């Protein structure tokens, strides 16, 4: 019975291990849910990456957008002129934009509130009894100094100032006069003739001095050099005046201007000419040059820009141009036309320079107001402001308010927005003729100790520097990385590959700040002291390696070559490389003595090649080491994953291993190798710390391997922490980041297109 039961049990069918129809249906539904979730998850992540990249672009555009915005003028109020019975000589606005003030030919200044025209104060200049004002002049707007020329040859000099108090927590501005040259008028003309034209300027840096130039009614050109001393005990001011007579103006003068350095005097005449006098040595002052600045049209307005280097000239035809002194080959200065601006439709009647920038306001005979900027050559605003001719314009020290006077004794007050006038496509990417330069140039110089500094925001040197650093890094890294990847993946034994590949890839984890530190503090001085060794290593070491390979394969007996297993030949190169490097460094001083007169760097200087210690050669080597792991890893994977049947088929048909590499492996792996190169290039373009520490950060425009550079990324790292948020400098740095991102985006897009085409081309192999 037991045997029968056992036999029946063994012969019974085993329970089925396959799921039934209901279980299979549940599995299919579960798999479908997982597939759907995976598809949606991957798609969401992909769109998230695209969205994040788009948001980066949006944010950068948001920060950069104000650069391209022009100026706006918002009319606020029209006021009656405080004093209408006298001639208005000048209008000004104080720095808090609460008060305006009017100088008249009666020897008074009237201060009034800009919101309603209420007179706050009326101050007397102390006009001598019986004297009459015949001319007026003001210095650089920031100096707040003005001069009144009298009919007796005297000049009354005052400086408007303010006392600031806060009674009951409310700001109160109390205008006052200061007499920097004493309260007594300065006798400019000892003959006592009336002064028809006047110019004044004061130098505050270095040895303080004041120059006053005047033209008398009998057309004599006079100059007075005035110095003052104050008694510390009594406060009494002693004035010492030296008077000179200059060559007469060859024309009927209209206006005179003196620069802040007290070196140059400019006189415009009714014929549209400007006469340039050199007054550095007043006793030997001379007429240097006469130029036709109006191009046949009379000059109707002329003013200095901030810093008193550039002249802005307005003509009867409504044309505006900028002129300044340029040094020629003979070390002589010439007044030179630099740029022009968008023309007004009518004669320019008044100009007002900004206090702290290179911009200016122009009013014309049709009632238009134009806002222009010198460096960027931008016309930011040109529109109808009033329906009458504008006779005078003024701008506040903070560039937030303007005044425009019309013939009907009205003052029109307006608010202006003009935050970034110095930025334009031309100023950012083209050559710009900056003050003090002999020709247009690409310059990046964002700051200076001088308030009259002309910001230089050319992105061209930074872009060229970025490409230069990446080019030399790739020139060093590409041959080593790609050749090493091919040899490691195809020729090297698996055991040695298992040591070499991780060792190179782990180099990528090395902080670039360490590489930059070593490059700047060790490699750069070492290269400078051993230039022959550096060139010997870079140029002759590959030749030595090829020579060793030729000796190994042709002259060494096969019986000896068998002792080295296939794929281990590269290990034999290690002592060869170390020995050659040691030999080159040891021989370097002797090569300098034999061929370069004891110093290869000095030899470069003698032949006209500039050599900086921290240069593109150092950056190429240091950044090349940072880029090699990226290129090597991706390229090695691309070569290693070439299907074996392709290489084996090639070898079976009689091709050598190198023929197989060139004809089969490289075409098949070319999309991956190209991707590796582009990834390395993107890595080099965005590198910061190495170029920051090893380039010298000189924003130059050349590809000289012996000179440094400044890159976009290094410039952002250096200057962004120090710039004011929202300033023009701040916006330009964000623009540099946008340019850097756009460069990498475009390069990667082109690289992907080429990679896909290569992949499609060689996919049939």
Structure description:
About 40% of the residues lie in helices and about 25% in strands. The protein is of the alpha+beta class. It has 3 domains: about 60-80 and about 295-460, no CATH class; about 130-290, no CATH class; about 470-715 and about 750-760, no CATH class. The strands form 8 sheets. Strands 6, 7, 8, 9 and 10 form a 5-stranded antiparallel sheet that branches. Helix 4 runs parallel beside helix 11 (about 615-640) and helix 15 packs antiparallel against helix 16. The chain is elongated and about 120 Å long.
Could you list some keywords that capture this structure?
3 domains, 5-stranded antiparallel beta sheet, 4-stranded antiparallel beta sheet, 765 residues, alpha+beta, 16 helices, 31 strands, 38% helix
Task: List strands and helices in order, with pairings.
Layout: H1 2-11, H2 21-64, E1 72-80, E2 88-93, E3 99-104, E4 108-113, E5 119-124, E6 133-138, E7 145-150, E8 154-165, E9 172-178, E10 186-187, E11 195-203, E12 209-216, E13 221-230, E14 237-246, E15 253-258, E16 264-269, E17 273-278, E18 286-292, E19 299-304, E20 310-315, E21 320-327, E22 333-341, E23 348-353, E24 359-364, E25 368-373, E26 378-384, E27 392-395, E28 401-406, E29 410-417, H3 425-429, E30 444-445, E31 456-457, H4 460-491, H5 494-506, H6 512-529, H7 531-555, H8 558-561, H9 573-595, H10 600-606, H11 616-640, H12 644-652, H13 657-686, H14 689-694, H15 712-719, H16 728-762
Antiparallel strand pairs: 1-29, 2-3, 3-4, 4-5, 6-7, 7-8, 8-9, 8-10, 11-12, 12-13, 13-14, 15-16, 16-17, 17-18, 19-20, 20-21, 21-22, 23-24, 24-25, 25-26, 27-28, 28-29, 30-31
Helix pairs in contact: 2-16, 4-11, 4-13, 5-11, 6-11, 7-9, 11-13, 12-13, 13-16, 15-16
């Amino acid at each position: 019975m037991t045997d029968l039961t056992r036999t029946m049990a063994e012969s019974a069918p085993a329970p089925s291990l396959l799921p039934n129809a209901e279980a299979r249906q549940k599995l299919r539904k579960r798999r479908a849910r997982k597939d759907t979730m995976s598809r949606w998850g991957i798609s969401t992540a992909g769109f998230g990456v695209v969205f994040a990249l788009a948001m980066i672009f949006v944010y950068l555009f948001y920060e950069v957008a104000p650069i391209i915005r022009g100026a706006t003028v918002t009319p606020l109020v029209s006021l009656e002129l405080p004093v209408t019975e006298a001639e208005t000589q000048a209008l000004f606005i104080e720095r808090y934009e609460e008060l305006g003030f009017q100088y008249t030919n009666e020897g008074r200044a009237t201060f009034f509130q800009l919101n309603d025209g209420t007179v706050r104060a009326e101050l007397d200049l102390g006009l001598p009894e019986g004297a009459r004002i015949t001319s007026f002049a003001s210095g650089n707007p920031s100096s707040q100094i003005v001069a009144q020329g009298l009919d007796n040859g005297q000049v009354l000099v005052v400086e408007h100032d303010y006392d600031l108090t806060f009674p009951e927590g409310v700001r109160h501005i109390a205008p006052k006069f200061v007499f920097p040259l004493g309260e007594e008028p300065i006798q400019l003309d000892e003959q006592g003739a009336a002064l028809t034209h006047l110019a004044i300027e004061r130098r505050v840096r270095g040895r303080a001095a004041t120059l006053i130039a005047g033209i008398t009614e009998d057309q004599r050109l006079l100059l007075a050099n005035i110095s003052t001393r104050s008694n510390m005990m009594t406060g009494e001011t002693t004035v010492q005046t030296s008077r000179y007579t200059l060559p007469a103006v060859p024309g009927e003068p209209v206006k005179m201007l003196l620069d802040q350095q007290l070196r140059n005097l400019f006189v415009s005449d009714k014929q549209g000419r400007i006469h340039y006098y050199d007054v550095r040595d007043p006793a030997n002052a001379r007429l240097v040059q006469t130029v036709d600045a109006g191009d046949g049209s009379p000059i109707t307005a002329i003013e200095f820009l901030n810093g008193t280097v550039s002249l802005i000239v307005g003509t009867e035809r409504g044309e505006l141009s900028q002129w300044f002194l340029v040094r020629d080959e003979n070390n002589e200065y010439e007044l030179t036309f630099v740029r022009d601006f968008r023309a007004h439709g009518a004669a320019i009647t008044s100009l007002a320079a900004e206090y702290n920038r290179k911009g200016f306001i122009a009013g014309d005979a049709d009632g238009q107001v134009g806002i222009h900027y010198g460096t960027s050559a931008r016309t930011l605003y040109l529109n109808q402001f009033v329906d009458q001719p504008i006779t005078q314009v003024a701008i506040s020290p903070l560039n937030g308010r303007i005044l425009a006077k019309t013939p009907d004794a009205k003052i029109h007050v307006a608010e202006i927005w003009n935050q970034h006038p110095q930025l334009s496509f031309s100023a950012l990417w083209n050559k710009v003729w900056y003050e003090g330069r002999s020709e247009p140039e690409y310059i990046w110089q964002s700051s200076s100790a001088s308030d009259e500094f002309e910001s230089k925001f050319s992105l061209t040197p930074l872009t060229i520097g970025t490409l230069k650093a990446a080019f030399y890094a790739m020139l060093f890294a590409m041959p080593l990385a790609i050749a090493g990847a091919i040899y490691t993946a195809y020729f090297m034994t698996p055991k040695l590959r298992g040591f070499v590949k991780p060792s190179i890839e782990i180099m990528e984890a090395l902080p670039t700040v360490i590489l930059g530190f070593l490059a700047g503090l060790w490699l750069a001085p070492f290269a400078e002291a051993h230039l022959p060794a550096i060139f010997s290593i870079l140029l002759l070491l590959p030749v030595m390696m090829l020579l060793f390979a030729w000796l190994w394969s042709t002259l060494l007996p096969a019986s000896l070559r068998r002792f080295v297993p296939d794929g281990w030949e590269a290990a034999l190169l290690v002592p060869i490389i170390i020995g050659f490097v040691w030999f080159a460094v040891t021989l370097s001083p002797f090569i300098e003595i034999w061929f370069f007169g004891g110093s290869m760097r000095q030899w470069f200087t003698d032949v006209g090649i500039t050599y900086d210690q921290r240069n593109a050669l150092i950056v190429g080597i240091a950044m090349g080491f940072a880029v090699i792991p990226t290129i090597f890893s991706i390229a090695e994977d691309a070569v290693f994953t070439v299907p074996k049947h392709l290489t084996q088929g090639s070898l079976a048909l009689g091709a050598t291993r190198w023929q197989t590499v060139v004809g089969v492996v490289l075409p098949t792996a070319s999309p991956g190798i190209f991707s590796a190169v582009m990834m390395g290039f993107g890595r080099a373009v965005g590198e910061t710390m190495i170029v920051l520490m090893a380039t010298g950060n000189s924003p130059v425009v050349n590809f000289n391997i012996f000179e440094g550079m400044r890159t976009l990324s290094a410039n952002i790292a250096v200057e962004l922490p120090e710039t004011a948020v929202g300033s023009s400098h701040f916006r330009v740095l964000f623009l540099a980041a946008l340019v850097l991102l756009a460069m990498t985006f475009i390069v990667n897009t082109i690289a992907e297109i080429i990679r896909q085409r290569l992949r499609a081309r060689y996919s049939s192999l």
